[in-house]
Amino acid sequence: MRVAVLGLGLIGGSAALALAEAGHDVLGLDPDAATRDAAAAHFPVTADPAGLAGTDLAVVAAPFRHLAAIADETLAGYTGLVTDVSSVKDVPARLFARHRFVGGHPMAGKETAGFAAAEPGLFRDRKWVLCLEADTDLGDWTALAALWTSIGAHVVPATAAAHDRAAARISHLEHLVAAALVRVADEPLARTLAAGSFRDGTRVAASPTALFTGMVEGNREQLLAALDDLGEELGYAHGYLQTTDRPNPISEWFDGARALRADWPPEVLAAQRIPLTRDALVELGEAGGWLEAVESEVALARRPRVKSTP
């Protein structure tokens, strides 16, 4: 497949490297000369959107704030398939509505950014959401699923709305919490004593500000709902700490969270082949399952085991 990757930072650069390594004809597009120089040792690069002509797929890996301009200007008249890697899916779906578009989001990354941090194995065994809506062309979706599984990713079918709700709770909220934890610990003794819990709980606070500002603003509605739920949970803890009852209900609160955390990641069932039909894919995604390989008319799929209730 002839693939153009627009934006050669950590995610776009890693995708381009992985695709080139897998034997695809890759063209990198980036406005930064230093980035193009670094990438040129691995695949052809350009700063001219005219170079996109003749490619089969455009992977938009530019910052969230640039998506509208790319949809309206850079890809104006582009007739190939378009996908993206944004961590919010509802907004890109609207911006690229005039294109053959299938939204995507690889659940992978680092605190570091730029092509220098890119690596071809970044997506191996990592989840890659591909949005499957009622009007999504199944052939386009399947072609992308085959592409991303070919570089080792696990493709998860989901609607944009379902993705954005989940991402708000397992990614976007965590960035807000990490930033808040850093801010409340900003005193000399606390910073000296900080160790593993602080390090692990605040890791993503070191991420690029512009990237995550766009992310949380782009998923504002779902993130506000997640913040409400977080506030409710912390409210329980606040109330429990105010009580002098013995046993204190905060023990049960901790026990419940501990049990949920111990059950993650969930146990995975044996691989099975499923038909590449919309109904089968929707059911797989709603069950938290994913594709590991795409064959001619079937796909190799896995799903988490559903625990029986007592």
TrEMBL record:
The keyword Signal applies. GO terms for biological process: tyrosine biosynthetic process. PROSITE patterns: PDH_ADH (PS51176). Pfam families: PDH_C, PDH_N. Keywords: Oxidoreductase, Signal. PANTHER family: PREPHENATE DEHYDROGENASE, PREPHENATE DEHYDROGENASE [NADP(+)]. This is Prephenate dehydrogenase.
